[in-house]
TrEMBL record:
InterPro entries: aa-tRNA-synth_II/BPL/LPL (IPR045864), Biotin_CoA_COase_ligase (IPR004408), BPL_C (IPR003142), BPL_LPL_catalytic (IPR004143). Coiled coil: none annotated. It comes from Cryobacterium arcticum. Its EC number is 6.3.4.15. This is biotin--[biotin carboxyl-carrier protein] ligase.
Amino acid sequence: MEFPISRSIGARFEYLPEAGSTNDVLVTRATGPDAGAWPDLSVIVTDNQTGGRGRLGRVWMAPSGKSLAISVLLRPRLASGPLPVNRFGWFPLLAGAAMTLAVRAVVDAAAPGGTDGEEAPRHEVTLKWPNDVLIDGYKVSGVLSELLPDASGLCIGTGVNLALDEHDLPTLTSTSLLLVTGSVPDPDAVLAAYLTSLSSLVAKFLEHGADPDASGLRAEVSELCGTLGSAVRVELPGGNDLVGTAVGLDTDGRLIVEDQTNGELQAVAAGDVTHLRY
Ligand code: BTN
């Protein structure tokens, strides 16, 4: 891959040749003595993250030079002032939606044209609630969103597997853009597509008072989200499992699941979702 990334994207953009966790770096800077120098939509990126953290206390593994770790700072505001923390629930979903669009663009651009009028098989790029990006059911990207300690904003960290080969994959359910398309993607293009989509989705959300319906984002994100309409098992943070059908996203970005045992609707704020194939 061609690094370092030369293009400057975001309100403040820094490429680090190496970082432990880009989220840790960004949170430390955005809350430190120089916090004023880190405005809304500041970005830190590396292709060599040595201590990546994942959701639910997991480790995020990424071999050097083969993936991107991107952290974006959000300090969301409405015309009336800062957006209250209890309305931050949609931002992690918007990050997943933005990366879904970026990955789709790469995968679609690489699709070989059909010969003799035959359509080449298309890959399915979808969002798995809350913010994993799957290609044909295999994970290519994940997001870890963390509240700043003073609750003045949010750090959205996204990892995307660009050039991992089959020996590098951290789990049996992972994939990379190289494995799907057969060529190493341009990291700059993936980054630019992701940041462009994320900033426009966030702007749209805030312009409409952080209302997922007025902004049209409930419909837009639902369209990308392969979890909706699927039979799912959700491992809830307390250790219990919820099995049922995912039927929607609520106003706070929670997943609404119809419990198969009693037909009741449950709103899930956090958990690990598996799509069940019966
Ligand atoms: C997950 O799927 O569990 C989330 C993975 C999030 C990884 C990203 S890479 C950039 C940022 N820095 C981290 O330490 N984690 C996130």
